[in-house]
Amino acid sequence: MKTLAIVLVSGGLDSCVTAAIANQSYQLAFLHVNYGQRTEKRELKAFMDIADYYKVKHRLVTSLSFLKEIGGSSLTNFKMPIPQGLPKSKDIPSTYVPFRNTHFIAIAVSWGEVIKAEKIFIGAMEEDSSGYPDCREEYFSIYNQLITLGTRPETKIEIVTPIIHLKKAQVVKKGVELGAPLHLTWSCYQREDIACGRCESCQLRLKAFARAGIKDPIPYLNQ
Amino acid sequence: MKTLAIVLVSGGLDSCVTAAIANQSYQLAFLHVNYGQRTEKRELKAFMDIADYYKVKHRLVTSLSFLKEIGGSSLTNFKMPIPQGLPKSKDIPSTYVPFRNTHFIAIAVSWGEVIKAEKIFIGAMEEDSSGYPDCREEYFSIYNQLITLGTRPETKIEIVTPIIHLKKAQVVKKGVELGAPLHLTWSCYQREDIACGRCESCQLRLKAFARAGIKDPIPYLNQ
């Protein structure tokens, strides 16, 4: 019987490839969190499609209302515009949702403690991403200490970040190599029908496929 | 203008006294989380009463559905009995809710990052409490590192645990000394109309008042 690993699956490219990596060695449990973001429904569909693809039985889909209530991010406050184009600086972009990953991982830890999972896979990338503070290796390293201290002595849960030092083009290649269902993923920050191709997230994705020399299998508006 | 501090207020004795301590030096913001526990409604009333007492304007009341879905605790799984009487061992009791404090503090951090709070007060007690792993000083120390790493560089939020090394009888005395509204608090784990006086939480509270030589201002069943 394989060890159980929880994968945080937003439905995007990075989490899909992370699931493909976890699938090589673990029995999968998928966690998805709705948090009032603009593309909540479309991301949930991507999650379900990827979960079906990997025939995942252990699924937890939950909703957090407070991140939208609190605001402070262009993903949850619809009055703030979504940044367009590739990031122009190393500054933290307006799409940063305050302390978001801490919530997602904490849900995985609570769930993992009950279903006896031993790993939590998250598709965070440190260098080649949007510059969110809660995507850095040091953050996850400290979080692992917090899990050890904050759970039952017999609980053995560890965060695993298999793509943290990859470039996004390498993630695309890795996904293709592992047969990850990239055609089922959703990355666009602002549309739910067809990817806009212009927002920061679409632009980072398109650049990654271009650099990898692979055609992005999803359609884009005006392309 | 005083610095803003978020206080995690469950509505129990410890968080009420913690609020009284924070009130000495800070402008208060109160956070309360419903998580499907048995006495959810009564605890929320206690929260509101204490918030009114301190005339707190910044209030966030939110609900987490997943802790009950996940289960694993007699506070959220109503098929599990609530332990009666004082704890008989140092084991983690069935009332432990997996990784609960991590969620509560993470909500405070997300909120604090937006409203620019600088402190998060939590009424955790290490030695003289129920033996929950997420109530230890070392846990909060690591959590402070996680906050520094996982938020914007300009965010300065620190967890403060003013009663972590107090005995519960000292907490009662401190509360009386500071004029904390102990008559508005709720500690019972199993009833919402009148405190049972028998569950672990009631027993710890009654013992603390007895040791402090102070009459508990709330009524109990059969007393």
Using brief descriptors, characterize the structure shown:
homodimer; 223 residues; alpha/beta; Rossmann fold; five-stranded parallel β-sheet; 37% helix; 11% strand; globular; QueC (chains A, B); nucleotide-binding (chains A, B); Rossmann-like_a/b/a_fold (chains A, B); zinc ion binding (chains A, B); EC 6.3.4.20 (chains A, B)
What is the CA-atom radius of gyration of chain A, in angstroms?
17 Å
Which two chains touch over the largest interface? A-B, 42 and 42 residues
**Structural class, from secondary structure content of chain A?**
alpha/beta
Enter the CATH topology name of chain A: Rossmann fold
Task: Give me the CATH superfamily of chain A.
Answer: HUPs
What string, H for helix and E for strand, traces the elements of chain A in order? EHEHEHHEHEHH
Spatial strand order of the main sheet of chain A: 3-2-1-4-5
Oligomerization category of the chains in this entry? homodimer
Query: How many structural domains does the protein architecture of chain A include?
Result: 1
In total, how many beta strands of chain A? 5
Number of helices of chain A: 7
Low-confidence stretches of chain A: none
Helical content of chain A stands at 25-40%
How does CATH name the architecture of chain A? 3-Layer(aba) Sandwich
Mean pLDDT of chain A: 94
